[in-house]
Amino acid sequence: MIKKEVVVIGGGPSGLAAAIEAAQRGAEVLVVDSNLKAGGQLFKQIHKFFGSSAHRSGTRGIDIGTELLEEAEKYGVEIWLNSVAIGLFQEKKIAVERGLDVEDKKLEIIEAEKIVIASGASENAVRFKGWTLPGVMGAGAAQTMINVNRVLPGERILMIGSGNVGLIVSYQLMQAGADVVALVEAAPKIGGYGVHASKITRAGVPIYTKHTVIEARGDKRVEEAVICELDEKWQPVAGTEKTLKVDTIAIAAGLKPLVELAVMHGCECIFDPLLGGWVPLHDKNMESTYPGIYVVGDIAGIEEANTALEEGKLAGIAIAEALDYISSEEAKKLKDETWERLKGLRMGPFGEKRMLAKEQLLAAAEAAKGSAEEHQIAASAGA
Amino acid sequence: MSLRVKEHVILGEDRADEMVEITVDGQKMKAKKGEMILAALLANGIIINRYTVKRKEPRGLFCGIGQCTDCAMVVDGKPNVRTCITPVKEGMVIETQHGTGKRGDKE
Q1: Alpha-carbon distance A211 to A229, whole Å?
Q2: Does residue B93 lie in a domain region?
Q3: Which one, of A199, A165, A200, lies nearest residue A350 by Cα?
Q4: How far is A145 from chain B (nearest CA, A)?
Q5: Nearest CA in chain B to A47
Q6: Any domain includes B2
Q7: Running DSSP on this structure, what letter comes out for residue B104?
């Protein structure tokens, strides 16, 4: 068994931020990442981020990814690539499977003093007749193909969902040379920012609100999509069906936190649709209900890459403090600054809802901690 | 139309031009050195990676990041290789996977 001081599971924006923050203050940090290259989904984000300059706005995700990898290297963060954390069990032990599918894989067990789970999220699917046909895919999959692999998944695209992912990926598909035939949105209003929506409507792409896809047709691959209007109860309105000639249906229906590892180790979770479903409880240090295990980024509630970066920093600072690399005064100052930036990012109609959801989660974590302590007191009194 | 994105307004020109040869279901084709198997297949117009165990339905790219396993194929005799996260190599032999990819699981 290998022993490490700090292990970060997942080398996306939040995981790398946590690793850099802890490592630059002296901690020995290992990042395990399942991909051929760390950086998570940053390398497919070719658009500029929002926010103030303190949040690296105006910088493209790909450039942030490159900067993070440089910083990680500078501070001596060790990164294991092609390494999947397949299990997390007590006491803070991580099972890691190393190697590509074409290689003979090797299993390593690592024992860590502190663990940061930055496992991210998976795309939600939408089920409809024919949804398993080749050509139906996640919007993120389409984005990976064009921006990372530089190959189009198809030429004529129907996008499902008008949140920021649906809007941005539609635009990027056009930048890559595809024809985005239409975008459908089940809600009565466009979900994402107006600025992203106007980019695609200006290009002449129709956005059908109160619409959904009901069928994908084709012989062994998508050749047509059937869309229709929805009534107030989200039910298809008969007679409103339209058939579109498309070869690709991309689904942007939100993300779901990958909480399995946290659950395996007994971290308490709550269900909150605003945060993407089940999420582990965490305090203001991003520490879960299990001491020494931290959760950051999308696993702690679906948000943006910029909030993920700040959450990662919080965990990294808290870990440096817990391991006595920095004083509690210094840690407090750094954490307060980070929380200020996070507040700034959680403003506006989209951010505020998430801020509220996060505040409820923090309160629930406090309550859980309180009851655990009471439990302990009762137990020791009983003994 | 080639599905490769050669010119890009933000990413610029794709300068990767070193090619390798792979064999897919007995057919030789070119792939960019180091690119993902799935990407090479898409560029060559192949979008079916496998057929399911029971209903023998076609499956292809779905998540693109190794999470869903829909793009699994038999690579150099090894079944269940996620082609979206496995890079090509010169001389690689790739086959459409039927069922679990074991002998006897045929179309």
Answers
A1: 4
A2: yes
A3: A165
A4: 7
A5: B10
A6: no
A7: T
* Residue A50: pLDDT over 70: no
Tell me the pTM.
0.93
Give the whole-number percent of chain A exceeding pLDDT 90: 85
Number of domains composing chain B: 1
8 Å CB contact of A101 and B9: no
pLDDT at A381: 63
Name the 3-class secondary structure at B43.
helix
d(CA A16, CA A79): 10
- CB contact under 8 Å between B60 and A135, yes or no, is yes
Report yes or no on B77 lying in a domain: yes
The whole-number average pLDDT for the span B5-21 is: 87
A221 in contact with B, Cβ within 8 Å:
yes
pLDDT band at A379 (very low <50, low <70, confident <90, very high): low
What distance in Å separates the CA atoms of residue A313 and residue A225, rounded to the nearest whole number? 44
Chain B nearest C-alpha distance from A341 (Å): 29
- Rounded CA-CA distance A244/A362 in Å is 46
A164 in contact with B at a CB cutoff of 8 Å? no
Rounded to the nearest angstrom, the minimum Cα separation between A147 and chain B is 8
Spatial distance between the Cα atoms of B107 and B94, rounded to a whole number of angstroms: 16
pLDDT (tens digit per residue) in A154-199: 999 999 999 999 999 999 999 999 999 999 999 999 999 999 999 9
Q: How far apart are CA B104 and CA A35, in angstroms?
A: 32
What are the start-end ranges of the E strands in chain A? 2-9, 29-32, 78-80, 83-89, 93-98, 106-117, 121-123, 136-138, 156-160, 179-185, 207-209, 211-217, 224-229, 242-245, 248-251, 255-257, 269-272, 277-280, 293-295
Going by the DSSP 8-state scheme, the letter that residue A131 receives in this structure is: T
Inspect the interface and report whether the beta carbons of A101 and B82 lie closer than 8 Å. yes
Name chain B contacts of A152, Cβ cutoff 8 Å: 3-5, 42
CA distance A152 to chain B (A): 5
Contact A38, A69 (CB under 8 A): yes
Please tell me whether the interface predicted TM-score (ipTM) of this complex is above 0.90: yes
Residue B10's pLDDT is: 84
- CATH classification at residue B91: 3.10.20.440
Say what the pLDDT of residue A370 is: 77
Residue B94 lies in domain: 7-98
In a domain, B14, yes or no: yes
* Residues β-bridged to residue A267: none
pLDDT tens digits for range A84-129 = 999 999 999 999 999 999 999 999 999 999 999 999 999 999 999 9
